[in-house]
Design brief:
The chain is of the alpha/beta class and 671 residues long. The protein has 3 domains: 258 residues, Alkaline Phosphatase, subunit A, CATH 3.40.720; 136 residues, no CATH class; 214 residues, no CATH class. Helices cover 55% and strands 10% of the residues. Strands 7-5-8-1-9-10-2-12 form an 8-stranded mixed beta sheet, sandwiched between helices. Strands 3-4-6 form a 3-stranded antiparallel beta sheet, with no helix packed on it. A hairpin with a 4-residue loop joins strand 3 and strand 4. Helix 13 packs antiparallel against helix 14, helix 14 runs antiparallel to helix 15 and helix 19 crosses helix 22. The chain is elongated. The relative contact order is 0.09. Keywords: Membrane, Transmembrane, Transmembrane helix.
């Protein structure tokens, strides 16, 4: 039988055929595997763009001339969502801005020891490099009252990060690429023309690459090449390199990969068009599908599907002038009051003096409302100061004319509280642009009210409520009305979706608790006094419940309610008091604080004489005492400490000045 040898020969040849087929298919399988691996490889490229450059025409990626502003150059990139990044918290420092990006959390410079970071130098070695002086960076971070870990971003990425730059251009940008030991795994330095290609080559090996773009036309060309070379699995973040200038900064930032254009935001800021530098770390790790460490306080950046670069740029311009206009406007108001007082005395002696006292005090009570008006108009500095001064005194004079003394403060207080509650309900677009707003430029608060308004609004509300209640008796109903008004104001100031101010809740609760006690008929029971003392803590607990139920995702929720044990709570507590203590010893603040405390003590000891024009009226007594309590307890509950004491005490003094402007004493006749 011949078929048996043939069958045996075929069986013997089968393994050889299989081996040949495998050899032939190996290149195709390898190519397919490589392609699949490349598609699954996610990477992040962070490119730091320098400051203004000269105009360059005919760029290959846009076909349009380049603009000098980094923000305008970012808006020219196709498919890039744009916004502004808050650099640091408090006083600005360029090195600290990069350290905050690398560590994903931040505190004020004043809480570090030393306050400014020491100089660091990138020293290259075989393939990578390390920062000389990084040990001092870590020691300084340990001095801060928080879990600060410089280099946490690169440390969290397997294999570390890489850095690419141009020969001859010294940069601090690689700080963002350093790990916890201050090391960068791979460093590439070469020509500007090869920068984009070198960056892409590094992305094939490392999941995170940081690039320092060159200045001038070469930087625009390199950025255009990076935009064109970006794959769908690459997240491209382009950010203005933190400058060495000392004033506060909002750095232009653009991201390609989170959406097709749009405007950037995050849960850190809750402000359209504004994110924080510490948000880069969780954004990068989320893109790479790496768990974000618990030490990180930043939140992932998201994209709103709206292209509104003009509004973002307008916001930046407004925030940059708020700080420099704040005190000139306030001093102009006080100076105008002095001039008005002198002129009125020359024209009508005591009658004119008391009219000027009432009108000036009412102008101060109208000031918060006028600040919202100028925030909406955004005029030049001269026009803004004129509107504030003339408008406040005009409204003060009209109020004195048509609202009988001593109920005058009730009208500006009601208007101010209503206006601010409405603005807070819409996301506080005017409050953050006002001269007494939180000013996101300094990176502490991005919506809601700031520390100055935190003391001013409750104090004005209490005096206004006391003036409205003038002539009525003490009663449980009166105390309940005062407490209810305080509850509404505390809810607006503390709610995560409105004010998001934890210290403000306790401050309002303390002030209105004191006023409510004084509105009770007779001596309050010990139980009532205990409840009043616990009011700030009760308000805080209520805020926590509302925040959790509403999903507010506020800073309070993330740092307090979700804090990891008593150690984290203690850090928050000590940080607040450390900041308040540092503010107390700065400049003339010790003297100003002493004057404010003495003024409160004098008011308590001479309360009968001060309230003589209204015969010791219970409403006015409760309002003034509550305003003083706002300042005193606000200084204890907030990291700005003495600043709240000064503002609330000033409002209380204005209330007393208004009372002493009793028109019945215009001729000097005793009552």
């Amino acid at each position: 039988m011949e078929f048996k040898p043939r069958l045996a020969a075929r069986r013997a040849a089968l393994p050889a055929l299989v081996a040949v087929a495998c050899l032939l298919a190996a290149p195709a399988l390898a190519a397919a595997s490589s392609q699949g691996s490349a598609e699954d490889h996610r990477s992040v490229l962070i490119a730091f763009i320098p400051g203004s450059t000269s105009t360059v025409s005919g760029l290959p990626f846009t076909g349009q001339p380049a603009n000098g502003s980094p923000f305008e150059r970012l808006t020219a990139q196709p498919g890039m969502a744009i916004g502004l990044s808050s650099a640091v918290q408090g006083r600005y420092n360029g090195v600290q801005a990069l350290l905050d990006i690398s560590q994903g959390t931040r505190v004020s410079l004043s809480t570090y020891d030393p306050q400014k970071p020491n100089p660091v130098v990138l020293v290259p070695d075989r393939r990578g490099g390390y920062f000389q002086g990084w040990m001092e960076i870590n020691e300084r971070a340990d001095s801060a009252p928080a879990n600060i870990q410089p280099g946490l971003l690169a440390q969290s990425i397997p294999g570390g990060s890489a850095y690419a730059s141009v020969t001859g251009e010294g940069q601090l940008d690689p700080i963002a690429a350093a790990d916890r030991a201050g090391r960068i795994e791979r460093v590439s330095v070469g020509s500007a023309s090869s920068l984009a290609a070198r960056a892409q080559a590094l992305l094939a090996r490392k999941a995170l690459v940081v690039v320092s773009l060159p200045s001038g036309a070469a930087g625009d060309v390199a950025l255009g090449r990076m935009v064109r070379a970006r794959s769908r699995n690459e997240l491209l973040i382009v950010m203005r390199s933190p400058p060495t200038k000392r004033f506060a900064q909002l750095l232009p930032i653009g991201i390609a990969g989170l959406g097709d254009g749009g405007t950037l935001t995050s849960s850190t800021t809750h402000l359209d068009g504004v994110v924080a530098g510490i948000d880069l770390l969780p954004t990068v790790l989320d893109w790479l599908k790496i768990d974000v460490p618990e030490a990180v306080s930043g939140q992932p950046i998201t994209v709103l599907p709206i292209d509104d670069a003009a509004s973002v740029l307008s916001l930046k311009g407004r925030l940059q002038v708020v700080g420099e206009r704040r005190f000139p406007a306030l001093w102009s108001l006080l100076g105008a009051w002095v001039v008005l007082l002198l002129c009125a005395m020359l024209a009508a002696d005591r009658r004119g003096m008391r009219w000027a006292m009432r009108t000036g005090a009412l102008a101060v009570f109208w000031l918060p409302s006028m600040l919202l008006l100028t925030a909406a108009l955004a005029p030049s500095m001269t026009v803004e100061v004129l509107i504030i001064v003339v408008g406040s005194f005009l409204l003060g004079g009209l109020t004195d004319r048509f609202v009988g003394w001593p109920r005058g403060p009730a009208l500006p207080a009601a208007v101010a509280i209503a206006a601010y509650l409405v603005d807070l309900a819409f996301g506080s677009p005017l409050v953050i642009r006002s001269l007494l707003g939180p000013n996101p430029l300094f990176g502490s608060r991005f919506y809601g009210i700031g520390n100055e308004l935190e003391a001013t609004l409750p104090a004005i509300a209490l005096i206004g409520l006391g003036a409205f209640w003038y002539g009525r008796e003490q009663s449980s109903r009166a105390a309940a009305i005062f407490a209810g008004c305080g509850l509404v104001l505390a809810a607006a100031i503390g709610s995560a979706r409105l004010g998001a101010d934890v210290g403000g809740v306790m401050t309002v609760a303390a002030g209105f608790a004191v006023a409510s006690l004084l509105m009770l008929a007779g001596r309050p029971a010990p139980k009532t006094i205990v409840l009043a003392v616990l009011a700030p803590l009760g308000a805080l607990a209520l805020l926590a419940a509302v925040d959790l139920l509403s999903g507010g995702d506020s800073h309070f929720t993330r740092t307090v309610l979700q804090a990891d044990g008593s150690g984290a709570w203690w850090e928050i507590f000590t940080r607040r008091f450390e900041l308040a203590g540092r503010g107390l010893i700065r400049g003339l603040m010790p003297l100003a604080t002493l004057v404010a405390l003495l003024a409160i003590a004098l008011g308590l000891l001479r309360r009968d004489r001060l309230l003589a024009p209204v015969d010791g009226d219970s409403g006015w007594r409760a309002g003034l005492a509550g305003a003083a309590a706002v300042g005193f307890f606000g200084a204890l509950f907030n990291d700005s400490g003495p600043m709240l004491l000064l503002f609330a005490t000033f409002i209380a003094i204005c209330g007393v000045v208004y009372l002493r402007g009793d028109p019945r004493l215009a001729d000097g006749a005793p009552r």
